[in-house]
Amino acid sequence: MTENQFLQELETALKRLPKEEQNDILQDIREYFANGQADGKTDSEIAAELGSPQEIADELIESFDFNQGDISAAANELTEDKFDQVDIQIDNGMLTIAPSEDGKMHADITDKSYRQQLNVDILNRTLVITLKEEPRKWGIFSFTGSMKSPKLDVRLPKKLYDKIQIDSDHGTITGERLDSRQLSIETDNGRIELAQMTADQATVKSDNGDIELAQIRAKKLKVGTDNGQLQLRNIQTDELQASTDNGAIDLRDIEGNVRAKTDNGRIRLSTVDLDRTISLETDNGAISVETQAQPKNATIRANVDWGTVSVFGVKNRHSVFGSGENAVDLQSDNGSIKVELV
């Protein structure tokens, strides 16, 4: 059987599926034929590996959820009294999460391939939403990944949740205007953008990607990325920990104690005052601190191995203001340190 014959038979057998699903499947088969041909295989050998086009179609049609468009309709029954926690797990996709306008939960997805399955359920008063890749195997051939990155839009009833947890293997996470006692948002690979969120304890982490936070209120806020920049604006917290292995840290309008560290990148802090515990450390990069008033009760220690120091225009590595009770520690192995009024 030639490639064209195989594709024609498969396309005919897939007629029950939506056209977009058919196109995704046929494209996967074309890629498999192309890879096999590059390895020196004949079309007949490749077709034998795949198996019968009819059997492939039967398996796909049997597993296809023809009611997947009804997820949002069923979700309309999920009001705020049905769940207190939220758990979202994504293999690959872009997530947007925000409050709903009608007090009900909605989960809408676009650009999904036939190998990506969206499930919504309630388990022990926890709303569980999963978007998973399901590998397909025909003969000795497996489809294990998807080139598509679906867009998942989740809308939650407006309330104070006990916990909101989001875990993503790959994809951007965007959230706004949510309140939770515990907030945990992590992605292995992707950017995270959050705004107007409140929590008692919040953890935001990306293994590879920038993190941008604005208008966040939390008693404890921990933000980190292995590779990417951190940009935090208008943060009200008792304790902020911000870290990146490789990337700049930009902190503006920050209230509360601050601890920020990067192995490679500059650190900038813009704030109203310095009368609190502050620790800024970089192995390679400059440190810039802008404040609206000189401290009244703080000790500023500025240590550099290679670079200049300027504390309010004075080349002083140890400056005491008032009783000096609040420690402001600034350290750069390779880079200048500057503290100035703005």
Structural descriptors:
alpha/beta, about 350 residues, 21-stranded mixed β-sheet, about 15% helix, DUF4097 domain-containing protein, Toastrack_DUF4097, about 50% strand, two-stranded antiparallel ribbon
Explain what this protein looks like in three dimensions.
This protein is an alpha/beta fold. It is 16% helix and 50% strand. It contains five helices and 23 strands. It has a 21-stranded mixed beta sheet that branches. Strands 6-7 form a two-stranded antiparallel sheet. Strand 4 (116-123) and strand 5 (126-133) form a beta hairpin.
Instruction: Give the low-pLDDT segments.
Output: 70-74
- Which class of secondary structure composition applies to the elements? alpha/beta
Report the portion of residues in β strands: over 45%
Query: What is the radius of gyration?
Result: 26 Å
**Helical proportion, percent range:** 10-25%
Count of runs of 4 or more consecutive helical residues: 5
Order of helices and strands: HHHHHEEEEEEEEEEEEEEEEEEEEEEE
Largest sheet features? 21 strands, mixed
**Backbone shape:** elongated
Strand segment count: 23
How far is the N terminus from the C terminus?
75 Å
Estimate the mean pLDDT confidence: 89
Pfam family, one: DUF4097
Domain DUF4097: 86-339
Protein name: DUF4097 domain-containing protein
